[in-house]
Design brief:
It is a single chain. By secondary structure, the protein is α+β, with helices and mostly antiparallel strands. The chain folds into 4 domains: 92 residues, Nucleotidyltransferase, domain 5, CATH 3.30.420; 163 residues, OB fold (Dihydrolipoamide Acetyltransferase, E2P), CATH 2.40.50; 111 residues; 103 residues, Ribonuclease E, catalytic domain (Hypothetical Protein Ychn, Chain: A, 3-Layer(aba) Sandwich), CATH 3.40.1260. The protein contains 12 helices and 28 strands. The strands form 6 sheets. Strands 4, 5, 6, 8, 9 and 14 form a 6-stranded antiparallel beta sheet that branches. Strand 5 and strand 6 form a beta hairpin.
């Protein structure tokens, strides 16, 4: 199996894509301006305590107050095998407190935070305020588990804890000690920063997207890494040189004239993720419906009629659907509660087989999942840990023409599609690209400086002209090339920068 990672940055975004045999498995997107708040630590102030919910709401400088469950303690890390006890700190309104984001804001809900701070390394997670010793469930050898837990126990102080990550199976005692000391220094630096920081300030920020991917996903993997941006390439190479298990030779700088994602056939796969309908190999399809509380998958046979009896036709479709649903929640980074309305199956063993197939497919995902037994109505519920913002929040935005009930392509994703079309235009030998575009989207692209890096770099000797249209829908645009020395353009045309 060919495993590949693709890193690129443009339009103010960093993008990481993992593919197996050319098929996208995982996508990560992060704004260079805002970053990802998940894992960040903020100096907050308790706004109020709601005893009925056993929760506090904390002002952390975000749009909405953050939700802090009280007396959460070691229960926060129950997804790992281990033991510990809760801290049980008492809070009152007005208290200043350090909290860490464990779930990002979504819709009308503020971020969920914890006072049980954690600092993630390659092999260990340091818990400075939680008396907990845990280990990844993916480490199954009992002797290895015992040795690693014994070593982690030696490294922690009173009231502190460590979680041993899967990558630690190949780590030496010295490597674990060095990493533990580094994580403790980061914690002390966070406390020092908090002494003078104002309420609402981030006193610790998680690593940016490429660093997190290299820390958590590459490791001993044999995946090749392609990087489309020069500055990002240098950063990735520097990180690889620090990793004996990675190696600089696996990293390739893409220098083609066209978009890297288009060149490797990923663009159309990304665009397909904006479609709520997903086609299965046998002609059946899935429909995805996003709601505030959960995500719903509906399985349909579509054009697939099978070859034998109805029950086997339904079983085959549901088995395919289970694998594809696991792939889609991973690609789209869907978290929280997921409901699946499978096609009705009469036989209990068939329902069990589909549930088992779903559990097996989800087990390959880094995000933790929990699948409930299928009901008699062939409806399955499962939960998936929310790793970061859903991909849909990057690709889509609410449609202003249907009382915000539907979705259209987001401004940033439209800018990326236009960028790809302009690159193709220049790669075809044209010196000028003429873009006809919705006026509001043009103003957004110019005001946000989405193409500023290109205009100062690769497009220095080129010309890009925008022709705005008030009649164009936001998703409509066209790009054409021209090599004429004198261009005939309408008075409304604007040159890029």
């Amino acid at each position: 199996m060919k495993k590949e990672w693709f890193f690129d940055r443009f339009c103010g975004e960093q993008i990481a894509i993992y593919a197996e045999d050319g098929k996208i498995i995982e996508v990560g997107v992060e704004s260079e301006k805002q970053g990802d708040v998940l894992g960040n630590i903020y100096k907050g102030r308790v706004a109020n305590i709601v005893q009925g919910m056993q929760a506090a709401f904390v002002s952390c400088g975000m749009e909405r107050n953050c939700y802090l469950p009280l007396n959460e303690g070691a229960a926060l890390f129950s997804s790992y095998d281990g033991s510990g006890k809760a801290s049980g700190a008492q809070l009152k309104a007005g208290d200043e407190i350090l909290v860490q984001v464990v779930k990002t804001p979504r819709g009308s809900k503020g971020a969920k935070v914890s006072a049980e701070l954690s600092f993630v390394g390659k092999n260990l997670i340091f818990l400075p305020r939680t008396d907990f010793l845990g280990i990844s469930r993916k480490i199954t050898d009992e002797k290895t588990r015992e040795e690693l837990l014994k070593e982690a126990d030696k490294l922690r102080g009173d009231g502190q804890g460590f979680i041993v990550r899967t990558a630690a199976t190949g780590a030496t005692k010295r490597a674990l000690k060095i990493e533990s000391e580094y994580l403790k220094r980061v914690y002390r630096a966070t406390l020092d920063a908090a002494k003078t920081a104002p309420v609402g300030a981030a006193v610790y920020k998680e690593y940016d997207l490429p660093v997190k991917v290299m820390r958590d996903s590459l490791g001993d993997s044999d995946a090749k890494v392609y990087v489309g941006d020069g500055e990002l390439y240098e950063k990735v190479v520097r990180l690889a040189r620090m990793r004996a298990d990675l190696g600089e030779k696996r990293i390739v700088r893409y220098t083609g004239e066209r978009s890297m994602f288009a060149f490797y056939g990923l663009d159309e796969q990304i665009f397909a993720l904006t479609d709520p309908q997903i086609k299965l190999e046998n002609g059946a399809h899935l429909i995805i419906d996003r709601t505030e509380a959960m995500t719903v998958f509906d399985v349909n046979t579509g054009k697939y009629t099978g070859e034998n009896d109805l029950e086997s036709t339904v079983l085959n479709t549901n088995l395919l659907a289970a694998k594809e649903i696991a792939r889609q929640v991973r690609i789209r980074n869907i978290g929280g509660i997921v409901a699946v309305d499978f096609i009705d199956m009469a036989q209990e063993e068939h329902r069990e087989a589909v549930t088992a197939a779903l559990e097996q497919a989800l087990s390959e995902d880094r995000a933790k999942s929990r699948v409930l037994p299928m009901s008699d109505l062939c409806v399955t519920l499962f939960t998936r840990k929310r790793m970061s913002e859903e991909l849909a929040s990057f690709l889509l935005k609410p449609c202003s023409h249907c009382t915000r009930q539907g979705y259209i392509l987001s401004d940033i994703y439209m800018a990326m599609r236009i960028r790809t079309a302009i690159l193709n235009c220049f790669a075809d030998g044209y010196r000028s690209a003429i873009v006809e575009i919705n006026r509001a989207l043009m103003n957004k692209i110019l005001s946000e400086g989405y193409f500023s890096a290109e205009s100062k770099g690769a497009w220095r000797e080129k010309r890009v002209y925008f022709i705005p249209h008030t009649s164009f829908p936001e998703e409509k645009f066209s790009v054409r090339g021209d090599n004429a020395k004198v261009l005939t353009l309408p008075d409304t045309a604007q040159i890029l920068y």
